[in-house]
Amino acid sequence: MTQAILPFLTAIALSAIAAYYSVIGLAQIFPGSFWPIIVMGTVLEIAKLVTVSWLYNNWKETILVMKVYFITAIILVMLITSMGIFGFLSRAHIESNIIVGANSVQVKQIEQREKLIRERLTYLYRQAGDDPEKVARTTDRQIRNAQAQLVELTKEKLPLLREENILRAEVGPIMFIAELLYDKDDTKFIDKAVRFVIFIIIFVFDPLAVLLLIAANQSYKKYKIKPKPPAPVKKANRKKKLDLPTSPSLESFFIDKDKMLVPKNQIAKVRGMK
C-alpha cells in the first residue's frame, strides 16, 4: 500500500506547486484579469489530475473518441501549466536584472560626474602651477570644493556597488552555467542560460506529476487485485473420552446372571401367554 500512497502524495505535491507557479505566471501574462485567470488555472489543474486518473482506470471501457480528446486535453493543459511556470520564473529573473541594471545606471552616472570633477581639478591644478603659494584664493576654493564633491560621490557610490555585488553573487551560479554553455562575448549569454534552465524545469515538473499519479493508480490496482492469504483454520478441540470403570458396578451384584431381564413393554405379553 505504501507504493501507492507515496507516489500519490508526491504527485499531489508536485501538481500543487506547479499549479501555484502556473496560475501566478498566467496572471502575470494577463494582468488585466488576475482573479479569473487564477480560478481558471486552478480548475484546469484539478481537472487534469482527475482526467488522468479516470482515463487510466477506465481505459478499456472508454471509446476511441473520448480517449483521443482526453489525451489531447491533458497535453494542452500541461502546455498551459508549463507556459505559466515559464512566465513565473522568467519574471523572477527579469526583476533581479532590473535591480542590477538600475544600480549599474546610477553607478555610471556617478562615475561620469566624477570624471567631470577630475577634469576640472586637473584644469585648476594647471592654473595654480607648481607653487601652491601662488594659487589664488578663488582657485583654491574651487579646488577644495571639487575635492569635497569627489568625496561625496565616492560615499554615494559605495552602497550601490555593495548592493550590486550582492546581487551578482546571487546570480553567480547561473553565470557559471552560462559560461559553460555560451560564449562570454555574447551580451545575452546569461539570459540564454536562464531560459535553458527554465526549459529543463518545465520538462521535468508537470510531466513527472502526471506520471507519478499514473504510477500510484497502477500500484493501487495491483494492491486491490492481490489475493489475500487464507485465514488459518482453527483446530477443533477434541473432547477427552471418559474412562469407563472396568470394575463391576453396584447393579451387577443384584442381577442374577441365570435369569433373563425382560423389558417393561414385553411384560404384558409374557403374562398373556400364561
Spell out the helices and strands N to C: HHHHHHH
Intertermini distance: 90 Å
| Mean residue pLDDT | 76
Low-confidence stretches: none
The helix tally amounts to: 7
| Helix-strand makeup class | mainly alpha
Description:
The structure is a single chain. The protein is mainly α and 274 residues long. It has one domain (2-225). The protein contains seven helices and no strands. The protein has helices at 2-29, 34-57, 64-128, 137-170, 172-181, 189-225, 267-273. The longest helix has 65 residues, at 64-128. It starts with a helix and ends with a helix. The model has no long low-confidence stretch (mean pLDDT 76).
Feature tags:
mainly alpha; 75% helix; 274 residues
Task: Please outline what is shown here.
The chain is mainly alpha-helical.
SSE topology sketch:
Layout: H1 2-29, H2 34-57, H3 64-128, H4 137-170, H5 172-181, H6 189-225, H7 267-273
Helix pairs in contact: 1-2, 1-3, 1-6, 2-3, 2-6, 3-4, 3-6, 5-6
